[in-house]
Amino acid sequence: MVAIRAYVTTVAAAGLLALAPSAALAAPTALDDGSFEYPVAPANSFNALKAGQTIGPWSVDSGSVDHIGKGFWQAADGDQSVDLNGGGPGKVSQTIRTTAGKTYTVSYALAGNPEGNQGLRTGRVLIDGQNFQDFSFDTTGKTRANMGYVGRQVTFVATGATTTLSFASTSATGAYGPVIDDVRVKSGCCSCSTCSD
Ligand SMILES: [Ca+2]
């Protein structure tokens, strides 16, 4: 009787797993749309998004950001990117599957909104809400057609089955913030050979 009960429990557990998102069986890291290509933002324009709204799999957690459409300015990958300042500093996050104790490397392309008063645009990468990397980008001399993206990376060790990755502006530069695109997460250390910092 005990054995039968154990069997039934196992089947029930498997049934629950089958009902979970199919992503549960996918690769160990699963950042979705790190290029901000979905949804499609207005061409030659952008969508202004506030805290509580989403950009595909990304959530806007605080402040406001602009989801930049094709043609508005150069993207680092694909057509679209994100200005982490909408009306002011904002923050976007995505929770990914991780394995506790494993090392992961986040790489991303960084630039800044070249409009307004050119100069430094600043922000940070947060892992589970903790500041893991401050970044800055100088937009001096940059244009919408030549954004001057640079590759950056940051490495973290996961502490749980999920990890929340966030990019936040710390830039008190009004509507002109740091710009990110082409976010990738790979297991292991320092896999981005072209990245600096
Ligand atoms: Ca993109």
TrEMBL record:
- InterPro entries in the record: Choice_anch_C_dom (IPR027576), DGR2-like_dom (IPR006946)
Name of this protein? Choice-of-anchor C family protein
Top-rank taxon: Bacteria
Which NCBIfam families does the entry link to?
A: choice_anch_C
- Give the matching Gene3D superfamilies: Galactose-binding domain-like
